[in-house]
Known about the structure:
Helix content: under 10%
Strand order of the largest sheet: 4-1-7-8
Structural class: mainly beta
Shape: elongated
Number of helices: 0
Order of helices and strands: EEEEEEEE
Strand content: over 45%
Distance between the termini: 32 Å
Largest sheet: 4 strands, mixed
Amino acid sequence: xxxxxxxxxxxxxxxxxxxxxxxxxxxxxxxxxxxxxxxxxxxxxxxxxxxxxxxxxxxxxxxxxxxxxxxxxxxxxxxxxxxxxxxxxxxxxxxxxxxxxxxxxxxxxxxxxxxxxxxxxxxxxx
Length: 126
């Protein structure tokens, strides 16, 4: 059923994507303006974050809004990378944006640093 917008409202898509190959998401909360956005549905799972999952929300155009995520991740690896399985992370981030028209806010989980950066310091959100 389509969403009926009030005058001055726009649809913004919060797009969450995982680009960290060595870590798998185990839990995800998406928060928009202090309210929990509908959790993943039957058509999307945490594994879908690799390709990106969209969370459409309705906001008031012209005003500031906050989008945030809390994600739990665990290491994934085998053979010489099996040590990764012992790692657990909780990442939190929030971003403030002004919605002028319909659009999207990209929230990307990625590995910062370089090959010399310890794994404990690599997972981050942009």
